[in-house]
Amino acid sequence: MHQDVESIMFSKEQLQTRIAELAAQLDSEYAGKTPxxxxxxxxxxxxxxxxxxxxxIPVEMDFMAISSYGAGSKSSGEVKLIKDLDRKIEGRDVxxxxxxxxxxxxxxxxxxxxxxxxxxxxxxxxxxxxxxxRVVPIEADYKGFDCEDEFVIxxxxxxxxxxxxxxxxxxxxxxxxxx
Length: 179
Ligand code: IMP
Ligand code: MG
Fold this sequence. Notes:
Blueprint: E1 5-10, H1 12-29, E2 36-41, H2 45-54, E3 60-67, E4 80-83, E5 93-101, H3 105-115, E6 121-129, E7 142-146, E8 152-153, E9 169-172, H4 174-177
Helix pairs in contact: 1-2
The site of inosinic acid has 19 residues, from β5, α3 and β8.
């Protein structure tokens, strides 16, 4: 375990088992369709890559980058679009793949923006749900795990751009960000 990790919340194996279940659920609910999988950079990359590889229906890939955090561990409520989609989504079934829902600011901003482009549907697939921290009422349509109110890192999630490559999700030691 990394020295900055307090404890492991979800192991590599737990993540893969749950991702396989989510992929099977998406396969059956989107059977006969070709959903556009929108990965939210950069936090969702590991989840996105594993989820899509576990799916068997045809999918298309696109990405958006949004920032709501800056470098700290608390959300500011300010959301900024850094990279938009490459293609139009009118008439498409869009599945937004996100690492974690915290305050909900990011996804509510995103959902509003995507809906204005007249897709056929927009669903949210989030690996983690920090439900107790919600400020804006928004729910994931598909979710991996509920997550306690702890700052977590790994499997794409960062603290100040670090730890994204840890293969598990762990709780970051408070001493790292309460200096
Ligand atoms: P929201 O807009 O507050 O829902 O924030 C969502 C974004 O904040 C996520 O996409 C993450 O990038 C980041 N975030 C929220 N909680 C955590 C955490 O515990 N660890 C790392 N990033 C987090
Ligand atoms: Mg982040």
